[in-house]
Amino acid sequence: MTNPSQPEAESVFKVITVVYLALLTGQLIFLGVVFLLHSQGFELMTENREIFLYVGMVVTLAAIAGSAVLFGSLQKVALTKTDESSRGIRYSTAHLVRLALIEGCNFVNLVFYLLTAEILFLVLFAFGIAAFILARPNRDSFVTDLQHSHIASIG
After folding, report:
1. Where are the alpha helices (DSSP H) in the chain?
2. pLDDT tens string 24-59
3. DSSP character for 117?
């Protein structure tokens, strides 16, 4: 017998996955735009560039660490909800906040690279993309996080 909440859980998982792919695509498109602008002779900043190095590193570390901490605390709130609809909404919010924090630091590093052409910002962007990819929603983590054993057929 099919659990009536299975379609709802499946739709929550699909929405999170679609948003994840959209956010990832946006970052990669912006990376392409930055490379295109540099190839066309974009005018770089030449003065007062040092502050960007510190800000880029702090933002990246804070976003990656903060996204993990916030996700954990928001996930705990989601698991306290008794109805599955509320749990699904809270879990979606937790995951979207996590992805948005990482995406934000990636865009900051791309803008800093655009302005300065410092390779360090591409390295920081690579760390951010790695964290973003590791935060990818998948069926196993969804089942574990929401404790939905009845949606094991989602793929």
Report:
1. 6-39, 50-80, 84-116, 119-134, 139-146
2. 999 999 999 999 998 998 888 878 888 999 999 999
3. -
